[in-house]
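User: Hey, quick favor. My workstation is busy. Could you predict this chain's structure for me?
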Amino acid sequence: MTLTQFDNGYWYATELKEFAETIGIPSASKLRKDELEKAIKLFLQTGKIKSPTKRNLSTPRVKDVERGLMLDLPVVVYTNDKETKSFLEREALKIAPGLKRRSGARYRLNRWREEQLIRGVKLTYGDIVKKYVQLSQIKEPFTQIPHGRYINFMSDFLAAEKGATREQAIRAWKKLKTMDTPKNYRSWVKSQSSKPR
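Assistant: No problem, here it is.
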């Protein structure tokens, strides 16, 4: 498989994990989809196998949520479960009453948290809540994530296709996934303009 073939395909996380395990990427089953893509692309470009993350992939000890979430609790084993999300929302509303959930804020919060911990910064759940509030209150659009094909496509489609519905965007995405082309809105537009009239 070439890098272009990989980029033009659409891969589910299970397929990426299977491929990563086949080529020998360590701890493939514990990697996120974006990390798997990064490791596989490096392999396809260079033939080298390298872990795409510096975060700890060992089996977690006692989860923070099991210790009882409190603002002064140090972040050790964070989980994205229902209880943790509810805690975040509840505490965020105490800081900023009426705060609305913002699409993409939790994703960016998780990447920020991981970066801080990798750098050795000691975080508490109070720090996590404050950052979540800050991310939720940013007025300008978030920058697109490099691997978020679906998210970026949906955002671009709905912004450019005046009056388009979410259902139309999903149908367009499903069609794009089957095509041998990059998975972005530009490729979708190009494919539509090349259709015979």
